[in-house]
Amino acid sequence: MRSSAGRLRRLLALAVLSVALSVATAAVAGGDHNFQRDFDVVWGAGNARFRDGGRTVELSLDERTGARLQSKQRYLFGRFDLEMKLVPGESAGTITSFYICTGGARHDEVDFEFLGNSSGEPYLLHTNIFSDGRGEREQQFALWFDPTRGFHTYTILWNPHNIVLYVDGVPIRVFANNAAAGVPFPARQPARVFASIWDAEDWATLGGRVRTDWNSAPFVATYRRYNVTNACVWEEEEEDGAGGGGGGGRARCPTALTAVPGGGPRRRRAPAWMARRMDWWSWMTLSWVRMNYMVYDYCADRRRFPHEFPPECAIPIGRS
Predict the structure, then answer these.
(1) How far apart are the first and last CA of the chain?
(2) What is the DSSP string of the chain?
(3) Strand partners, 269
(4) CA gyration radius for the chain?
(5) For 115-147, how does the pLDDT look when each residue is reduced to its tens digit (9 = 90+)?
């Protein structure tokens, strides 16, 4: 009884926190978003259906194919918000994703991947971060809500200091810039934004022990309220150069005007998200999520790393 009561209190506390933080997230996640205008369907064109004038898109998976969207623009740093409602009911073997990726052999990538499950069983949120072509930094989380019953906001914050993943405004994972300690950090290559649904029955559900039930197809996930107004757009040069991402260019970041004491002309300043780091409250919340909802951490897997963990695992959480 005591354990159940304690868990209920923890769930209530997180629910209150989620509501408070998601209000702030929702205020950002509006804007002039349009999937049909801002994305290309690069795979499974017949399985991407745009609704509400392009402001909502449904991606479906059947026995023939899934679907993938790719942003037309590339970005070097930014805050990327997206609302998703996952495949309801039977979803074993399926993966619904939202991620950013630079492409190329030494690519950088940040993943939200939702691993489907048998009807009535919970989804797992699988996250991974690649830097300079190296991944295998998996962390998995149970969710404190049913992601199939309504829309929830998933956020990737990427700036020169850290990458932070949020669910409804709650930080669940951070990857700090520890380049000085020999850990590559994504900071040079512009990335595109992706959304997809695909069949991964060989590993998605209980390591592939539960296969995709095609009698339940099509599997449909819905995306809406995509927002990249807080992101630095990569502007290509007319001729390819030696820059990151396979061509020359530069990032154009949004700026804000700030007043100058004495009434002088206002100056432009960098956006607040570009300098954002985890504060004390964020670290406390992240630690709470890790303690209660993390179900796998590569930095604790002695079977995979019997001799030595990756170097970033030796850096205490909260320190960079």
Answers:
(1) 40
(2) -HHHHHHHHHHHHHHHHHHHHHHHHHHHS-SS--HHHHEEEEE-GGGEEEEGGGTEEEEEE-SS--EEEEESS-EEEEEEEEEEEPPPS--TTEEEEEEEE--STT--EEEEEEEP-STTSPPEEEEEEEBTTB----EEEE-SS-TTSS-EEEEEEE-SSEEEEEETTEEEEEEE--GGGT---S-SS-BEEEEEEEE-TTTTTGGGTS---GGGPPEEEEEEEEE-TTEEEEEEPSS--S-GGGS-EEEE---EEE--TTS---EEE--GGGG----HHHHHHHHHHHHHHEEEEGGG-TTT-SS---GGGGSPTT--
(3) 256
(4) 20
(5) 999 887 889 999 999 999 999 999 999 999 999
* Residue 3, CA distances (Å) to 12, 17, 38, 141, 290 in order: 14, 21, 48, 20, 18
Phi and psi (nearest 5°) for 179? -60, -35
Query: What is the rounded CA–CA span in Å between residue 196 and residue 32?
Result: 21
The C-alpha angle with vertex 52 and arms to 51 and 58, in degrees rounded to 5, equals 25
Picking from 282, 117, 82, 77, the residue whose alpha carbon sits closest to that of residue 211 is: 117
Q: Do 199 and 94 touch, CB atoms closer than 8 A?
A: yes
So which residues are the catalytic ones?
Answer: 109, 113
Dihedral, CA atoms, 253, 256, 259, 260, nearest 10 degrees? 0
CA atoms within 13 A on the CB side of 23: 5
63-77, 252-266, 268-282: range with highest mean pLDDT: 63-77
Q: What is the value of pTM for the model shown?
A: 0.87
188 token code pair: 């040079």
Phi, psi of 276 (to 5 degrees): -70, 130
Partners of 208 in the beta sheet? none
Residue type, 240: D
Provide the token pair at 247. Answer: 């061509």
Token pair 């539960």 in the structure block, residue: 210
**Can you tell me the mean pLDDT for 299-318?**
91
Mention every residue, 6+ apart, whose C-beta is less than 8 A from residue 228.
71, 73, 75, 78, 79, 80, 81, 193
